[in-house]
C-alpha cells in the first residue's frame, strides 16, 4: 500500500488586512510569539494571539469576527499565554490568561460584544486554563461535582508555572458589563473547603471578590496542560517533568500521579478516547510528550488505560465512569523512531493538534434503549505533527488516525512491531500533508482540525464486508489548516477512494493494466471477500476485469464505466465493439444475479418463516437496491451512447433498462415495507400483533359486503361495480387481475390476497408508476384504519420516500373516504385546491357511486364544483339524470341544448323525456319553450307510451300550444278507450278533462269539431274470409310412397371419397406414430409438428363450439398435428392454452417473483384436511361431466409412469398442504373451461360444453375412429371399428366414469378397476382361437400390438366416418359390453340429443336421425341396446368383412321397410 495523500480543496483563504496588520504590529518583542487554535465543538471559530492582541476569525471563510487589544497598568502591555473557548447562557466567549509584570489576570471575553466582561487577578504566571462548569448554581447538570463547587456560578481551573492549581468562581450571575482587565477583581483563595460556601460567596460578591479553592499547592514543576474529562469527571494535570495527575471533581482528591515512560519531557497535550462496549469498564487517555517549546525534536504518544468499577447513565443523559481502579500505560508510539521515512536528520518536531472524534448509534426511542448506557460506535483519535530536517527548506507534515476498536481487534499490541510500518498497521492510518505545505510555504501551520461530520467510510463491497474495509485507511474526511495568514481546506481520502479515483482517471486505459488494478482493488478491500483467498494468478484477465467492474458498481464509481462506454462507442476500433459487448453482457448478468439474490432475501418475508426483519436482511435489500440503481444507470448510458444499432437490438437494450428500473423500484418498496414493520407477513392472521399488519380476511369481508350492497342499491339502473378502488384496479389491465388471481384465495379484485401480490404490481411493465403508488396508498389507508393504533405517519413517510405528489395522496384519500361512505369529507378533499384533478373516468365513477347510493345532492354538488368534461353522449345522459334527479329541469334543458347535435338529438331528447316522466317532472318540462323538432319528438314519445297519463300530458301540451284540433282528436280517442274501462278514477279524470276541452271546442267551427270527433272514432274494416281447398288429385296417377334412402348427388359422392382418403391417411400416420412410441428404444421427439399458417387454420378455443374451419381437410390436419405433438408436462397440464400464450422474453422473465410457499405446521395441515368434505356421488358425477374426454396417447404414457406431473407456469403463492380430494360443483349448465391439468385427448373440431354437451358426449362415438384410441387393461390401444349408435350414450357415460381427475389418480384407477370394469375392456384375439376359452369360462387376455407380426399389423382396418351412423350386427364381434340401464326419460332425452348433434354436424343423412327419433317415440321406454365394439383381427380375411357388411346393409333395409 502506498502512503495516502491529502488534497487541497480551497487554496489559501487569507485573513483581512486589518487582522494581519493587528497581528504584525507586536511581532518584534522577544515574547511576541504568534499562537492560534481552532475552537472545539461545532463552533466555526479560530483565535489568534500575539502579545496583547487577540483576533477571532471564521474558520471556514477566514472572515474577521472580533478583535481586542488588552491593556495593562504602568503602560506595560500584557501578553496572552493561554486561551480556552467558553460558552454560557447561549453566549460564546473565551477564557484568556494574561501575563503582566506583577502577576496574571483571568479574563472572560464575550465575542458578542467584543469586550471583557469579567476579570480576576491570579497569583503567579498563568500557563493553562480549563473550563469545568458553565452552569449557574446547583442544578441537575452539576450533580456530578463536589457540593462546594455546585454553589459557584461557573468554574474554571487555572494553573501556574509553579504547579499551583486553583478552581475559580467566574461569578456568571454578576455580569455587569462594566468590568475590564484593568479593573480586575481580587481573588479569595481557600486552601481547604469551608463549611458555609453560600454565605462566604455572598459576602465576597458584595465586596467584589471571587472565591477560589486550591486543588494543588505549588510543587515546583510547572503545569504544562489541563484537561477536564466529563465522562470520568476527572481533571487531568500534566507537568513539565513528565508527570501526570488525575483529580476527581466529585471528591476533589487526587486518584493518580505518575511519570510517563517518556521521562522528563513535558506533557504537551491530552485527549480522551472510549472504546465500544468494553465489558471491563475501561476507557483510555492519550498523553503527548513534546519538547517543542524548548526547540527539541522529541514527540511521543502514550496511551493510558483507565479501569473503573462502574459505568452508569446520569439523569442528564451523560455517561459517567466511577471508581478508578487502575491507570496503566498500554501503548506507546515514538515519532522519532523512524516510523515516518525522512530524507535527512531531524532538526525539530512539533505537535500541531490532537483530537478525538466519536460517533454514537441512534437509539430507537424505546424505554430500554433510552436508559441503556451507550458507547461510541466509532472512536478515533487524530494527531498531526510537523518535522523539520536539515537540508530541507520545507517541513514535512503528517496526520494519522488511531482506531481504538480496531486496536482491540488486533489483540491490543503495546507498540508497532519491528517489521511493521505505520501505513500497513490495521489500526493506524497515515496521510501526508505535503500538498498543503507546498501551498502554505513558507507560512507555518499553527493548527489542524478534522470536521467530525465528514468522517466516513466507503461503501462496503459486500455483506459482510472484507477485513480490509474496517481498516482506518478506508476513512475519508475533510480538514482545515490554520495559518498565520489564513486558512486552507483539505480532504483526506481513504485508500478505497484513492483507488476509485485511479479507476475514474484511468478510464478505458485500464484494459492495458488489468492485473495491477486488480491487485490494488484487492488490497483496498473493494473486491468480494471470496476473492481474498484466491491467488490473482489463477484468474484470467476477463475474470479480473469482471471483479473490477463489480467493485466500481458496488462503490458507485459510475464515472469509470460511463467513461469507458463513451470512449468505446465513439472509437471506431474492432476491439471497442468487443469491449462494449463484454460490458453489456456483464451488466445484464449482474442484474440477473442480483435479482436471484433478491428473491432469496425476500422469500422469508412472504412465506411466514420469520417474524421480524433482522439488520442483515435490511442491509441485503439496500445492497440490492444500490446495485440495481447503478446498473440501471449503466444501461442508460448504453442507450444514450449507442450508435448504429438495429431496431431489434435497440428494443432489447431498452427492455433490459426497463426491467432493471422496475426491479429497482420493487426493492425500494419492499425495503420501505420492512422498515414500516408491515413485513414480514404474519403466518396466523387471527393472532393480533402489536404492529400494524395486513388483515386480508377482514378487508375481503368488508369489500365483498360493499359490492353486494351496491348491487342491491343499483336496481338495474346503475353500475353496481362503482367502487373507486375497483375502477383503479380495472385501469391496471388484465395483467394485474391475473396476478391477483395467482395466490391462493385471490379473486382478481381488491384487496389482494397478500402483500406479495400487492408488491408484485411494481414488476408489471404495462402499468404507470403513479398508478402502482395509488393502489399502495389505498391499501395503506385500509391497513392503518383497521389497526387499533391508527396513525397516518406511514402514509407521509411513503409519500416522502418515493417523492409522490401531495395532490395524488389527497386524491386517493378522497376516493377511500367515498368507498367508506364518508361522502362529506370525501368531497372536501376532492374539492381541495391542492388535490390532483381527477381524470375523466374518475369523474363519472364518483358520480355513479354517489347516484347509486342515493346521494343525489352530493352528485349535483360535484358536477357544479368540478365541471367534468362531457365528450360522449353517455356522459351527457348521465349529467342529465343527475340534474333531473335534483329537479333542475331548466339546467338539464340548457345542458341538452349545449351538447346536442343532429346525430344524438333524438337519443338525448328521448332520455330526457324518460327521466322526466320517471321522476314526475313532465309538467315542469312542458312549461319550457320547444322547437319544432323537440315538439315532434315529445309528441312521438308521449303517443308511443301506453300510459293514460302520458296521453293526458300530450293533451295538455297541445292545448298550451293552441293545437285544438289535435287535442280534440286525442281526447276523443281517450274517450273511446274509456268505454271499456270501469275504473271510477279514470272516469273522474275524463270528466275533468272534458270540461276545458268543451270550452275550447266552442271556439272552433262546428264542422271542425265534428270532423275531429269523426277522425277519432275507430275505423271498422271487414276482415277477409279465407277458405281452404283440398289439393286436386290427378285421375290417371298412382301415388307411391317415396323411398327412405338417401339421395346421392355428385357432391355427396366426392365428399365421401375425400373423407375415406382422409381417414385412411390419418390412420396410417397414427399407426406408425403409435408403433414408434411404444417401442422400447424409441425416444420422444424434441420438436412439435408444424402447424398450418394462421390464415389457413385459425386457433380453436377449447370449451366453445368452433365454426367451420375451411373443410374437413383442415380438421384432419389439426387432428394429425395434435397426435404428432410430443407429450410434455406443459401440454398435458395446460391443454390448448399453451399454444395461445407465447413465451415471454428472457428479460421480462426477471419481472416474476418465485413461488411463495407458506410454512404451516403439521397440525394445521391435518385440521385443514379433515375440514374438507369427502367426495360424494354428486361430486363424482360433476367430475365425470367435466372430464368426459377419452384418454389420448400422451395421457396414456404419462399415466403408465405412475407419477404426478406439476408444472409451475407462473409463480403463485399457495400453502404447502397434503394433497387431498376436493368436492367439485355439479353441472349447472354453464360453460366450463378445460381443466389446466388435462390435455384434450382428441383434436376434435368442436367441443360442446354445458349441460347437454357434458351429459351426452355423442361427439365421442362420432369421432372415435379419426380422433382417439382407447386403452386396454395393459395399456394397448383399442382399435374400434364401429359403435352401436343406440348405445353410444352408455359408452360415453362409462368412459366418463373412468376418466381420472389427475394423472396420479388416473394410474390408481387403472390399477384398482373392479372385475366388471376389467371385463368390459377385455378384447379377445381372433374368434378362431377364443371360442374354446369362452366355453371353458376362462378369462381372456388382451392382445398387444407388439405381439402381432409386423407384416400383418398393416392389415388393421379403421372404420370410416361415413359408416358410423349405420347399425351393425356382425357375427365376428368378439365381445359385447353391457352397462346398467338408464332411466327411460333420460334415455329418451339422450336419443333426441343424438339426432340433434347429427343434424349439426351434417355428416350423415338427415332422414336417419328423424326416423330414429320417431321409432323411439313409438316403441316407448326401453333398455339401451348393448355397445358393439369390434376388434378386427389381422388374421381374418377381408372377404369375411365384406360379406358381413353386405349382410348388415340388407338387414338394415329390411328393418327400415
Summarize the SSE layout with pairings:
Elements: E1 4-14, H1 17-24, E2 35-38, E3 45-50, E4 53-58, E5 64-69, E6 79-88, E7 91-99, E8 104-110, E9 115-122, E10 126-136, H2 147-150, E11 153-160, E12 165-169, E13 186-190, H3 197-206, E14 209-216, E15 223-229, E16 234-239, E17 243-248, E18 253-259, E19 267-273, E20 282-290, E21 299-313, E22 319-334, E23 346-359, H4 367-371, E24 378-389, E25 396-403, H5 404-409, E26 428-432, H6 434-440, E27 445-450, E28 477-483, E29 486-492, H7 495-506, H8 514-523, H9 541-554, H10 558-570, H11 574-606, H12 615-641, H13 647-675, H14 696-714, H15 724-730, H16 734-742, H17 755-759, H18 769-786, H19 793-801, H20 806-819, H21 823-830, H22 840-852, H23 856-866, H24 873-885, H25 889-899, H26 905-919, H27 922-925, H28 932-944, H29 948-960, H30 964-978, H31 984-1001, H32 1006-1016, H33 1050-1078, H34 1112-1124, H35 1129-1134, H36 1137-1140, E30 1156-1158, H37 1162-1171, H38 1177-1186, H39 1193-1201, E31 1213-1215, H40 1250-1255, H41 1258-1262, H42 1264-1267, E32 1270-1271, E33 1277-1278, H43 1288-1298, H44 1303-1311, H45 1315-1320, H46 1327-1336, E34 1375-1377, ...
Parallel strand pairs: 1-26, 13-14, 30-31
Antiparallel strand pairs: 1-29, 2-3, 3-4, 4-5, 6-7, 7-8, 8-9, 10-11, 11-12, 12-14, 15-16, 16-17, 17-18, 19-20, 20-21, 21-22, 23-24, 24-25, 25-26, 27-28, 28-29, 32-33, 34-35
Helix pairs in contact: 7-10, 8-9, 10-11, 10-12, 11-12, 11-13, 12-13, 18-20, 20-21, 22-23, 23-24, 24-25, 24-26, 25-26, 26-28, 28-29, 29-30, 30-31, 30-32, 33-34, 38-43, 39-44, 47-48
Amino acid at each position: 500500500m502506498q502512503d495516502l495523500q491529502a488534497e487541497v480543496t480551497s487554496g489559501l483563504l487569507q485573513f483581512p488586512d486589518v487582522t494581519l496588520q493587528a497581528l504584525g504590529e507586536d511581532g518584534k518583542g522577544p515574547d511576541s510569539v504568534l499562537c492560534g487554535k481552532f475552537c472545539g465543538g461545532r463552533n466555526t471559530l479560530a483565535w489568534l494571539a500575539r502579545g496583547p492582541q487577540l483576533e477571532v476569525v471564521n474558520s471556514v471563510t477566514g472572515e474577521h469576527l472580533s478583535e481586542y487589544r488588552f491593556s495593562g497598568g504602568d503602560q506595560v502591555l500584557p501578553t496572552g499565554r493561554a486561551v480556552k473557548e467558553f460558552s454560557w447562557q447561549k453566549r460564546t466567549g473565551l477564557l484568556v490568561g494574561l501575563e503582566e509584570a506583577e502577576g496574571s489576570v483571568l479574563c472572560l471575553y464575550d465575542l458578542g460584544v467584543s469586550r471583557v466582561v469579567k476579570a480576576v487577578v491570579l497569583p503567579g504566571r498563568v500557563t493553562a486554563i480549563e473550563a469545568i462548569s458553565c452552569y449557574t448554581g446547583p442544578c441537575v447538570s452539576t450533580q456530578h461535582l463536589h457540593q462546594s463547587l455546585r454553589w459557584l456560578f461557573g468554574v474554571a481551573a487555572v494553573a501556574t508555572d509553579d504547579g499551583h492549581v486553583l478552581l475559580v468562581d467566574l461569578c456568571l450571575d454578576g455580569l455587569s458589563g462594566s468590568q475590564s482587565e484593568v479593573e480586575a477583581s481580587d481573588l479569595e483563595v481557600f486552601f481547604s473547603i469551608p463549611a458555609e460556601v453560600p454565605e462566604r460567596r455572598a459576602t465576597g460578591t458584595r465586596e467584589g471578590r471571587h472565591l477560589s479553592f486550591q486543588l494543588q499547592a505549588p510543587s515546583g514543576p510547572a503545569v504544562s496542560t489541563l484537561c477536564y474529562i466529563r465522562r470520568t469527571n476527572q481533571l487531568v494535570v500534566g507537568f513539565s517533568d513528565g508527570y501526570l495527575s488525575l483529580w476527581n471533581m466529585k471528591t476533589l482528591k487526587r486518584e493518580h500521579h505518575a511519570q510517563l515512560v517518556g521521562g522528563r519531557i513535558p506533557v504537551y497535550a491530552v485527549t480522551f478516547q472510549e472504546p465500544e462496549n468494553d465489558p471491563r469498564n475501561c476507557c483510555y487517555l492519550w498523553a503527548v510528550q513534546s519538547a517543542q517549546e524548548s526547540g527539541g525534536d522529541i514527540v511521543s504518544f502514550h496511551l493510558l488505560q483507565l479501569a473503573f468499577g462502574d459505568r452508569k447513565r446520569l439523569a442528564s443523559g451523560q455517561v459517567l465512569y466511577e471508581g478508578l481502579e487502575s491507570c496503566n500505560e498500554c501503548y506507546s508510539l515514538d515519532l522519532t523512531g523512524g516510523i515516518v521515512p525522512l530524507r535527512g536528520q531531524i532538526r525539530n518536531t512539533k505537535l500541531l493538534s490532537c483530537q478525538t472524534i466519536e460517533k454514537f448509534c441512534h437509539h430507537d426511542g424505546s424505554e430500554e434503549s433510552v436508559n441503556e448506557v451507550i458507547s461510541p460506535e466509532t472512536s478515533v483519535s487524530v494527531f498531526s505533527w510537523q518535522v523539520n530536517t536539515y537540508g530541507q527548506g520545507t517541513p514535512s507534515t503528517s496526520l494519522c488516525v488511531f482506531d481504538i476498536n480496531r486496536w482491540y481487534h488486533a489483540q491490543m499490541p503495546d507498540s508497532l512491531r519491528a517489521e511493521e510500518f505505520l501505513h500497513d498497521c490495521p489500526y493506524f492510518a497515515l496521510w501526508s500533508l505535503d500538498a498543503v505545505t507546498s501551498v502554505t510555504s513558507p507560512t507555518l501551520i499553527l493548527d489542524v482540525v478534522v470536521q467530525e461530520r465528514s468522517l466516513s467510510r466507503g461503501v462496503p463491497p459486500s455483506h459482510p464486508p472484507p477485513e480490509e474495509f474496517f481498516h482506518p485507511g478506508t476513512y475519508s474526511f475533510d480538514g482545515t489548516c490554520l495559518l498565520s495568514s489564513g486558512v486552507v481546506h483539505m480532504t483526506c481520502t481513504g485508500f478505497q477512494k484513492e483507488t476509485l479515483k485511479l479507476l475514474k482517471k484511468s478510464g478505458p486505459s485500464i484494459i492495458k493494466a488489468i492485473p495491477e488494478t486488480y491487485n490494488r482493488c484487492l488490497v483496498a478491500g473493494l473486491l468480494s471477500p471470496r476473492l481474498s483467498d484466491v491467488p490473482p494468478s489463477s484468474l484470467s484477465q476477463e475474470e479480473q476485469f469482471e471483479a473490477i467492474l463489480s467493485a466500481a458498481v458496488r462503490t458507485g464509481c459510475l464515472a469509470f464505466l460511463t467513461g469507458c462506454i463513451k470512449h468505446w462507442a465513439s472509437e471506431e476500433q474492432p476491439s471497442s465493439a468487443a469491449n462494449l459487448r463484454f460490458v453489456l453482457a456483464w451488466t445484464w448478468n449482474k442484474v440477473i444475479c442480483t435479482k436471484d439474490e433478491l428473491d432469496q432475501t425476500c422469500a422469508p418475508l412472504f412465506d411466514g418463516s420469520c417474524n421480524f426483519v433482522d439488520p442483515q436482511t435490511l442491509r441485503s435489500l439496500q445492497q440490492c437496491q444500490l446495485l440495481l440503481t447503478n446498473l440501471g444507470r449503466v444501461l442508460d448510458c448504453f442507450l444514450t451512447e449507442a450508435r448504429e444499432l438495429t431496431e431489434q437490438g435497440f428494443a432489447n437494450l431498452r427492455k433490459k433498462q426497463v426491467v432493471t428500473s422496475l426491479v429497482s423500484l420493487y426493492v425500494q418498496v419492499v425495503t420501505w415495507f420492512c422498515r414500516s414493520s408491515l413485513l414480514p407477513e404474519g403466518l396466523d392472521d387471527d393472532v393480533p400483533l402489536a404492529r400494524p399488519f395486513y388483515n386480508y380476511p377482514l378487508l375481503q369481508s368488508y369489500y365483498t359486503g360493499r359490492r353486494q350492497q351496491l348491487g342491491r342499491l343499483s336496481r338495474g339502473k346503475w353500475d353496481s361495480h362503482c367502487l373507486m378502488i375497483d375502477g383503479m384496479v380495472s385501469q391496471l389491465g388484465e395483467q394485474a387481475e391475473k396476478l391477483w388471481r395467482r395466490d391462493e384465495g385471490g379473486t382478481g379484485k381488491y384487496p389482494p390476497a397478500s402483500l406479495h401480490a400487492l408488491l408484485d404490481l411494481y414488476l408489471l411493465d404495462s402499468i404507470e408508476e403513479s398508478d402502482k403508488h395509488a393502489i399502495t396508498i389505498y391499501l395503506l389507508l385500509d391497513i392503518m384504519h383497521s389497526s387499533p393504533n391508527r396513525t397516518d405517519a406511514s402514509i407521509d413517510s411513503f409519500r416522502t420516500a418515493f417523492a409522490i405528489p401531495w395532490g395524488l395522496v389527497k386524491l386517493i384519500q378522497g376516493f377511500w373516504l367515498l368507498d367508506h361512505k364518508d361522502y362529506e369529507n370525501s368531497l372536501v378533499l376532492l374539492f381541495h385546491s391542492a388535490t390532483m384533478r381527477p381524470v375523466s373516468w374518475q369523474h363519472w365513477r364518483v358520480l355513479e357511486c354517489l347516484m347509486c347510493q342515493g346521494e343525489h345532492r352530493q352528485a349535483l354538488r360535484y358536477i357544479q364544483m368540478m365541471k367534468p368534461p362531457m365528450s360522449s353522449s353517455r356522459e351527457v345522459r348521465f349529467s342529465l339524470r343527475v340534474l333531473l334527479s335534483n329537479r333542475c329541469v331548466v339546467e338539464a334543458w340548457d345542458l341538452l341544448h349545449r351538447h346536442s347535435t343532429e346525430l344524438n338529438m333524438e337519443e338525448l331528447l328521448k332520455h330526457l323525456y324518460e327521466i322526466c316522466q320517471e321522476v314526475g317532472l313532465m309538467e315542469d318540462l312542458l312549461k319550457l319553450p320547444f322547437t319544432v323538432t323537440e315538439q315532434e319528438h315529445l309528441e312521438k314519445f308521449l303517443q308511443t307510451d301506453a300510459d293514460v297519463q302520458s296521453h293526458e300530458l300530450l293533451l295538455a301540451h297541445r292545448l298550451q300550444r293552441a293545437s285544438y284540433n289535435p287535442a280534440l282528436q286525442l281526447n276523443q280517442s281517450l274517450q273511446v278507450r274509456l268505454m271499456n274501462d270501469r275504473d271510477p278514477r279514470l272516469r273522474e279524470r275524463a270528466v275533468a278533462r272534458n270540461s276545458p276541452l268543451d270550452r275550447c271546442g266552442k271556439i272552433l267551427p262546428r264542422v271542425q269539431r265534428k270532423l275531429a270527433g269523426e277522425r277519432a272514432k275507430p275505423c271498422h274494416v271487414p276482415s277477409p274470409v279465407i277458405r281452404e281447398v283440398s289439393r286436386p288429385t290427378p285421375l290417371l296417377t298412382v301415388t307411391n310412397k317415396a323411398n327412405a334412402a338417401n339421395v346421392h348427388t355428385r357432391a355427396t359422392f366426392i365428399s365421401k371419397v375425400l373423407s375415406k382418403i382422409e381417414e385412411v391417411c390419418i390412420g396410417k400416420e397414427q399407426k406408425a406414430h403409435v408403433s414408434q412410441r411404444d417401442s422400447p428404444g424409441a425416444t420422444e421427439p424434441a420438436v412439435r409438428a408444424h402447424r398450418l399458417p394462421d390464415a389457413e387454420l385459425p386457433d380453436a378455443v377449447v370449451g366453445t363450439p368452433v365454426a367451420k374451419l375451411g373443410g374437413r381437410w383442415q380438421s384432419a390436419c389439426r387432428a394429425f398435428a395434435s397426435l404428432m405433438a410430443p407429450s410434455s408436462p406443459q401440454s398435458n397440464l395446460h391443454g390448448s392454452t399453451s399454444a395461445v400464450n407465447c413465451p415471454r422474453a428472457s428479460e421480462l422473465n426477471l419481472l416474476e417473483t418465485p413461488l411463495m410457499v407458506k410454512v404451516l405446521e403439521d397440525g394445521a395441515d391435518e385440521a385443514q384436511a379433515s375440514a374438507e368434505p369427502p367426495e360424494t356421488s354428486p361430486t363424482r358425477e360433476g367430475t365425470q361431466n367435466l372430464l368426459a374426454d377419452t384418454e389420448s396417447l400422451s395421457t396414456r404414457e404419462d399415466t403408465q409412469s405412475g407419477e404426478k406431473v406439476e408444472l409451475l407456469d407462473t409463480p403463485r403463492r399457495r400453502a404447502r398442504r397434503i394433497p387431498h380430494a376436493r368436492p367439485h360443483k355439479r353441472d349447472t349448465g354453464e360453460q366450463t373451461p378445460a381443466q389446466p391439468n388435462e390435455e384434450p385427448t382428441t383434436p376434435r373440431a368442436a367441443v360442446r360444453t354445458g349441460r347437454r354437451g357434458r351429459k351426452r358426449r355423442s361427439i365421442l362415438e362420432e369421432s372415435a375412429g379419426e380422433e382417439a384410441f382407447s386403452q386396454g387393461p395393459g395399456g394397448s390401444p383399442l382399435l374400434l371399428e364401429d359403435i352401436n349408435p343406440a348405445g353410444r350414450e352408455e359408452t360415453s357415460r362409462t368412459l366418463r366414469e373412468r376418466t381420472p381427475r389427475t394423472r396420479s389418480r388416473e394410474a390408481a384407477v387403472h390399477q384398482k378397476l373392479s372385475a366388471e370394469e376389467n371385463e368390459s375392456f377385455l378384447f379377445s384375439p381372433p374368434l378362431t382361437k377364443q371360442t374354446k376359452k369362452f366355453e371353458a369360462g376362462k378369462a381372456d387376455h388382451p392382445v398387444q400390438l407388439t405381439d402381432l407380426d409386423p407384416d400383418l399389423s398393416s392389415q388393421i382396418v379403421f372404420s370410416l366416418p361415413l359408416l358410423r351412423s349405420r347399425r351393425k350386427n356382425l357375427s365376428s364381434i368378439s365381445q359385447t359390453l353391457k352397462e346398467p340401464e338408464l332411466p327411460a326419460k333420460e334415455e329418451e332425452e339422450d336419443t333426441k340429443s343424438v339426432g340433434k348433434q347429427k343434424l349439426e354436424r351434417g355428416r350423415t343423412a338427415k332422414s336417419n336421425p328423424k326416423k330414429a327419433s320417431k321409432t323411439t317415440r313409438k316403441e316407448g321406454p326401453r333398455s339401451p341396446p348393448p355397445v358393439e365394439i369390434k376388434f378386427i383381427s389381422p388374421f381374418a380375411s377381408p372377404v369375411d368383412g365384406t360379406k358381413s357388411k353386405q349382410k348388415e346393409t340388407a338387414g338394415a333395409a329390411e328393418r327400415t321397410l
